[in-house]
Amino acid sequence: MVHWYQPNAWLKVQSEILWSPQNIPSLQLVVLYHARKSQPTMASSLLSLRATSFLILSTPTTHLSPNSKPRKLGIRGGRRNFLAFSSTSSSERAGEEESKDDKPGFNPFGFVTDNPSSRSAIQLPESPAEDGNVGQMLYRIENKGKEYGSYVKSGKLRWFVRETGSSNSRRGTILFLHGAPTQSFSYREVMSQMSSSGYHCFAPDWIGFGFSDKPQPGYGFNYTEDEFHSALEKLLEVLNITSPFILVVQGFLVGSYGLTWALKNSEKVSQLVILNSPLTVSSALPGLFKKLRIPLFGEFTCQNAIEAERFIEGGSPYVLKNEKADVYRLPYLSSGAPGFALLEAAKKANFGDILGRISSGFSSSSWDKPILLVWGLSDKYLPLSEAEALQKGNPDAVQIKQIEGAGHMPQEDWPEKVVEALRKFL
After folding, report:
1. Where is the stretch described as Disordered (predicted)?
2. In angstroms, rounded to a whole number, what is the distance separating the alpha carbons of residues 200 and 184?
């Protein structure tokens, strides 16, 4: 996506250079104006931003054309890309100005303009990036992201649980479980709309995630699959969820633990809805979880305060608006505990065994409850073939609802379509 850091700088590039279809979902490009004498200051500013690619313009009115020659800058930024372009001549600019009315400008976001949530999710800032230290950021965002939520004590652990609707809701209870490294905030729109349809909805932050407790490993919680299952069981008792309920699960790691819990407690689940989750033994593991499992490197990775939002944007065709990104990064800014909880959970997860149990457990010979797979087709982590493989193993029980324009977290990218699919299925 294009982030205009300097309002009076402007960019025009032929579509085959940067806006090829395969790059539209993943490109995050920052356009900057700089004077050569201020390059050290500019370098430090670049490294503080969230973008993965940067384009440096040598003057405020630099015009890019296919003939513009990139040159390397003396800036190092890990895996991020830095390019600078020189200006075209005035005659070239004049010729291009005369022809610009002959064809419409390229609009990389045109395919989602009918989606109200996605329209607001595209990041087009009105002002340059904000400066400030961690303390200032925490003060600005500390009260964000707790819609419909309250704290619930379960044994020695304190969960943060979002709740909409009431126990008198006529259509039953829905439990929403998120994946790693995110939180229940992603379900806020879906559960709000589902409660309006007569459902009693709960969405907890798993222990170690979001606003729930994050105990130090070895002191009351060890972040194993069994402990996550046991803690969830106790929470359901506290919430007085007794009769069979509708379970909605999404995502990696703790999301997978939601599915393995369902396999162990099938009598407690009336219907199952799965949003973009790994379902086969061949599911690729995203880079984040691979890095977390590398000794020492994992310790550094888990303390990156913006890792959660990068993971979300990495699997989505959209960039999070700042107010949403604030909520996903808040736990990781507040302390090191969420990062170490994620690290411990990732290290102790046997992903191959977990996915093997999920793949076989939901086959026709083992599972007969209705399953709806709501699948964002723009997911960069998990292709549609994951859902199709599960349906092939249990065609009588499994339905698939494809959502174009949604990525790895369809409940965040396009909640209206997820609600529509849930209402039809339930």
Report:
1. 86-108
2. 16
